[in-house]
Design brief:
- The chain has three helices and 14 strands.
- 25% of the residues are buried.
- The chain is an alpha/beta fold.
- A six-stranded mixed β-sheet has the order 3-4-5-8-10-9, with helices on one face. It has a two-stranded parallel ribbon with strand order 1-2.
- Helix content is 12%, strand content 25%.
- The mean pLDDT is 77.
- β9 and β10 form a beta hairpin.
């Protein structure tokens, strides 16, 4: 029922919806082997491999993809990727993880395609990095959740970012209040979260 309701909301011909496969969505890194694939049936653009939009203006790098294929090195206002972004304050154990890409490395990728923005999500907390006209937005978690014991109402968690490639010099966000998880009972009476 939740999937059907989500699909109903996203099935809007006036809105371009793009979904980027992440580590929790993928059964493997093979095409269409992820939980987002059913959304293709209603015309949602599911990016489970390195890809770009029809105009080549937006670049999508799903989890496990941290390089732009050479042929795409043209002008794109934004890169969307599923990776942790490291900076000077990133703990060494996190920076060394296979899911990490350095902010400096991502800025270099942005220069190749003249991107103004990169939006990256993988780790829970959000941050922004700037270098000249370019900005990296570390999205953080899209729902207000935390792994820190007793932490509630974390400022800034649960952000939904809004970006219009036709107005490529700005972005906005809204903070979405909880709940942190949705619980329900399935037809067998089992609690799901």
């Amino acid at each position: 029922r939740l999937l059907a309701e989500t699909m109903r909301v996203l099935d809007n011909p006036d809105m371009q919806v793009c979904l980027l496969a992440g580590n929790h969505d993928q059964a493997s890194r093979e095409p269409q082997d992820n939980a987002l694939d059913p959304f293709n049936l209603i015309g949602v653009d599911v990016h489970d491999q390195p890809d770009h939009d029809e105009d080549g203006r937006l670049i999508f790098l799903p989890f496990g993809s941290q390089e732009i294929p050479f042929a795409w090195k043209a002008v794109a206002p934004a890169i969307f990727l599923h990776a942790g972004i490291t900076g000077p304050d990133t703990p060494p154990w996190l920076a060394a993880s296979g899911e990490a890409i350095g902010a400096d490395q991502l800025f270099a990728m942005m220069v190749l395609v003249d991107a103004t923005f990169a939006f990256a999500g993988h780790w829970h907390f959000n941050a922004e990095f700037a270098q000249g006209k370019r900005s990296i937005v570390k999205v953080g978690t899209l729902c207000p959740s935390s792994f820190r014991p007793g932490e509630t109402g974390v400022e800034g968690l649960g952000r939904m970012y809004l970006f219009d490639p036709d107005v490529a010099d700005a972005f906005g966000f809204e903070v979405i209040p909880g709940p942190r998880f949705i619980s329900f009972r399935d037809d067998d009476g089992l609690k799901q979260a």
